[in-house]
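HUMAN: Quick job: go over this next protein and say how the chain folds.
***
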Amino acid sequence: MAPRGIHPAESRRTLAVAASGTLLVLAIFSALVVTVGDSARSLHAGVAGQTWALSGMSLGLAAALLTAGALADDVGHRRVLIWSAGMLAVASAVAALAPSMAALVTARVLQGMAGGGVLAAALGSIGRAFPAGPARTRATGIWGAAVGAGIAVGPLAGAALAAALGWRWGFWAEAAAAGAVMAAATTLPSSSSSPPAARGALDLPGIATLGAGMAALVAALVEARGDWSGPVTLALFGAAVVLLTAFAAVEATRRRPMVDPRLLTEPPFVASITGALFTGLAVVGLMSYCPALMQGALHASALGSAAVLAAWSATSVVVALAARRLPGRLPAQARLAVGLAVVAVGEGALTGIGAGTSCARLLPGLFIAGIGSGLANAALGRIAVESVPRHRAGMGSGANNTARYLGGAAGVALVVTLASGAGPDALVRGWNLAALVSAGLCALGALIVAGCRARPPRTPLPGT
């Protein structure tokens, strides 16, 4: 069940640590959704501060994921996982001690950068520890369940700790959990995926231009929530274009670029990136806004809104675990396309609510969307590592997750633009439109993924 040279017990331990780290990062990512109001009141911050606090981790994730994945392939997934979990513990402690909203936003960016290292190294290590076939299908199903479990646990734990002890205690709990993941990672086998001949010097110009470019792009999307045509927004979009163009120019001269350009012509890799992008754009974006709808228009508490949202995330956990029992002959791309299509149906069922509607009205749509998300999450984990050479699993994971969180930043900006309004009536009208648009985007993503027909590569990729 494990590749040659890796003991089955080591593979199981790798999966346990990778799934735990993934669950923690997603819990940290989602917890602030229901507690940002408490932190803003405590730190005397306004709407802009809350927006940046919610978006800071997305910025850090987008800036670090692809670089962390490429680095893990070279220096080893275990080493990057230990470093990143340690940095996540420190960043969480800084957030717990934050004296101002600016300090909290800075800590959230650092949490995102550290979390990017954990995610990329975790999924990459699964690709290394489990061979293609049923073993990897089961492992990536568990990884997909960890994604949903983190999104379910984060808001519930954050709201409960904030209600009982105050919002800072959530960050202290995150710091302790990250320290535990760091300690567990030290027990993993030490190795790097790349054969010595495939490793190159650290690509500092590529790291700098990619990280800065992705950070500028996410920052532009955050600013766009208030004004798409404002000077700051346009300046950030312009900086992103310049920096990402510079990254492409730098990588064109590299013997071993972070992302082999030939991968962009391979249907499985395109399906991986497209599926992750639309998952962020049409699922993460809408679900991130769902607690704000329930608290602002449907009279739910922070804990109550987290419990209702768990109907979606908890369902996705169960389905992701069950997905490993689907027939092995059903390709990951097909599972991903079906998952996105089911989410489209669920998000369509979230429309048609009014200001006096009970939160229970959202449950059928959330359950259906949870089924689709579970299928999609399990398939995304599998296709992310199968669409690249085995020694580049970290890069495949980084590229996939970068697309997811970049899409999430764009999705939140889109939903806020569509759903913003004064008063409950305006809020629910905007929500109905945002849910309908998100459903359409999910359907479009399903069609694109389904159209990425697998074929043998015309030119063998390095390491295949």
Summary: The radius of gyration is 21 Å.
